[in-house]
Design brief:
By secondary structure, the protein is of the alpha/beta class. The protein has 23 helices and 26 strands. Strand 17 and strand 18 form a beta hairpin. Helix 15 runs antiparallel to helix 16 and helix 20 packs antiparallel against helix 21. The longest helix has 21 residues.
Length: 667
């Protein structure tokens, strides 16, 4: 009997049967809420009792399955010890979601199958936003799609919006129901309508998929807390602290100050439960095939709502093994590979974006290898941190070193590049490299944090610390791009000279962002220079989490000033718009371009070279407040893309916090 999370009838596997028009609800209860979703077209409906071998497969589905079947079966059998019944359900579930996929989305899948590099072009621009902050509701976001289009955005990442318990929602990572929207934001119908409107405007929609854990209020957790062993087996429960204490010897703490430890005592059942992130987020046990099957089902459900991209949240943590650090274990890659194949079978127009906030050696394996791809895209976390390090030090040597590693990777590896996001800035820098310059880790982290707090002489940055750990001399940093660049301090002081300098730094950083291969993603508000929001200090549900400093409501009144030429909002908005249009116009910004570090013989100036189909670009960025010379000596004739003037690429003087895009083929 196939099974899916639904109402109360149990199958032979001990999981749930789907109720609805053609399913028998064996629980004897009134119609389950999932049935109304089924009738609305969000869930597949199939006859009771059919095994996968009994299903007549559509030609398209069969061809996709055959391409993946041998590897899929082998990996699943290896991971789940030849559990044929679980695998049969898994295949049945894949077909159900293919069968119920709206034709509009199937057509999009076919187009993208014909053009598998559709997301790799130089025309991509992303924006990351919170629904509540940006539009209050999903309908509110729909009403603002024209603003996103005006901004040049064609990739919209909505931060977590699934149902979460009251008081824990704003982060959105404690999901209590993967098939319901947080009520004040709207409904699944609203999300489907938003996704449809995005498609009509040529925009892709990205959603977070929280894989590692559920809320303690999720139905599975509630039933586990009520003593049902089947549901306790979906998590990590222990009768005493003996095994948890063994885990603690090797597993690092994610939030040592705000949520110390990796386990929590569950008073209701007198047991210990694994909670890697927060006590109210219970880690899922992916060694249980029911967990994987049901979570994959949840992802495919959202695919059929209209999601184009899934950000796999905290994916390195999803497999646990005693005696390890429970990070990046081989089984994690097996699970991601299976998810990738599931998507290629059901919805091949859908992409996986891995959230792997680690050093490059740990990040790159999530692309997969040897014809066995995993994620299509990964975050370029190290470049982001190295960029802010360079803002503080004015020294580009670390950034050159780090970018050189990224540039040497295969061109098919697509990174999402960003300056800021919803999270903090962690100083996971290459300290062994910095050591050759006499830099010591603890002291240097302290300097960086003081600089961006505005406590260092000459700094106009305004930020706050997150998860400060005085014992280790470590902390992470929060703040918007504008405030970290000095815009907030300059406007507070009414100092026009400082403001001009801060805006130039802000625009230069965005030019650097847009000069990299991959997909540039702007954090909502950065396009108009949104400043820190200190109101979270007055909210008892938020005051202990300084990340809300840069999670403030979008200032629509300020956004209106983007039309004013000399305003802060107008200067930044128009500059980014212009850079985005130039990037889209010139093929040299394609991800397939050759990219290298251009030696400028000046530690204040970063140089990037790009070449594609006869077009060559030299991008120069001055991280110093003072004018600096890039000591380059190129023979071709160059034109500055912004001023449209001829500019010989020989000993180029770059203004303080200025940049050049010099191109050999001008259009």
């Amino acid at each position: 009997m196939p099974y899916l999370h639904g109402c109360g009838g149990k199958s032979r596997s001990g999981s749930f049967l789907r109720c609805g028009e053609r399913w028998q609800c064996q629980g004897g209860a009134e119609k389950h809420p999932v049935c109304s979703e089924q009738e609305a077209g969000f869930l597949p409906v199939r006859e009771e009792g059919r095994m996968f071998a009994e299903i007549e497969l559509e030609t398209e589905f069969k061809e996709r399955l055959e391409r993946n079947y041998d590897e899929l079966k082998w990996l699943y059998a290896e991971l789940y010890h030849n559990d044929g019944q679980a695998f049969d359900y898994f295949l049945t579930m894949l077909h159900e979601f293919y069968h119920s996929r709206p034709e509009e989305l199937r057509e999009q899948d076919r187009v993208r199958e014909e053009h598998p590099d559709w997301y790799k072009g130089n025309d991509m621009l992303g924006m990351l936003l919170y629904t509540r902050c940006f539009g209050k509701t999903l309908d509110g976001v729909r009403e603002k799609l024209d603003y996103l289009k005006e901004s040049g955005v064609n990739y919209v990442h909505l931060m977590p919006l699934l149902e979460s318990p009251e008081g824990r929602w704003d982060g959105g990572y404690a999901v209590s129901d993967f098939r319901k929207i947080q009520p004040e934001l709207g409904s699944m119908e609203d999300l489907a309508a938003l996704a449809s409107d995005c498609r009509k405007r040529g925009m892709s929609l990205c959603l977070d998929f929280v894989m590692n854990h559920t809320s303690e209020e999720h139905e599975w957790a509630v039933r586990a807390r009520n003593g049902e062993k089947e549901f306790q087996d979906r998590y990590f429960f222990f009768d005493n602290w003996n095994i948890p204490n063994e885990f603690e010897k090797t597993v690092p703490q994610v939030f040592p100050q705000t949520a110390p430890g990796n386990f929590t005592w569950c008073e209701a059942v007198q047991k210990v439960v694994m909670t890697t992130f927060y006590p109210y987020q219970w880690d899922l046990n992916y060694a249980n095939p029911t967990v994987f099957n049901d979570m994959c089902s949840n992802m495919l459900y959202l695919c059929n709502i209209g999601a184009d991209v899934f950000r796999l949240d905290a994916v390195p943590y999803i497999w646990k093994r005693l005696g390890t650090n429970c990070r990046n274990l081989p089984e994690v890659h097996t699970l991601v590979r299976i998810l990738r194949m599931a998507a290629e079978i059901v919805c091949p127009g859908t992409l996986l974006l891995g959230e792997v906030v680690m050093e490059p050696s740990k990040v790159v394996p999530y692309f997969g290898s040897g014809g066995k791809p995993e994620c299509q895209m990964l975050y370029n976390v190290t470049t982001m941190a190295s960029t802010w390090h360079t803002v503080a030090t004015k020294d580009v040597r670390l950034l050159k070193h780090q970018l050189g590693q990224v540039f040497s990777l295969p061109k098919e590896y697509i990174f999402l590049n960003y300056l800021r996001c919803h999270d903090d800035i962690g100083w996971g820098l290459d300290f062994p490299f910095l050591a050759q310059f006499g830099v010591r880790e603890v002291e240097h982290k302290r300097f960086l944090n003081h600089y961006f707090l505005g406590d260092f002489p000459g700094s106009d940055s305004r930020g706050e610390l997150y998860n400060d750990d005085p014992r280790l001399g470590d902390a992470r940093l929060c703040g918007t791009t504008a405030s970290l660049c000095g815009i907030e301090a300059a406007e507070y002081e009414g100092n026009e000279e400082k403001l001009d300098k801060a805006i130039r730094l802000d625009i230069m950083l965005h030019a650097f962002l847009l000069s990299q291969s991959g997909i540039p993603v702007i954090y909502s508000g950065d396009e108009i220079g949104q400043r820190n929001d200190y109101s979270y200090h007055e909210d008892p549900l938020k005051w202990s989490d300084s990340r809300y400093l840069h999670r403030g409501r979008f200032p629509w009144e300020e956004a209106k000033r983007r039309k004013m030429k000399e305003s802060r909002e107008g200067r930044i908005f128009r500059a980014i718009q212009r850079l985005v249009k130039l990037r889209e116009k010139h093929g040299v910004f394609e991800s397939a371009a050759d990219v290298w570090i251009l030696e400028c013989w000046n530690d204040h100036v970063l140089g990037i070279g790009r070449y594609y189909k006869g077009e060559k670009l030299l991008a120069l960025f001055n991280f110093s407040e003072e004018e600096q010379t890039a000591w380059i000596n190129e023979v071709e004739d160059y034109t500055d893309l912004l001023s449209r003037k001829k500019c010989p690429a020989k000993g180029v003087s770059v203004p303080g916090y200025g940049f050049f895009w010099l191109c050999t083929r001008f259009r």
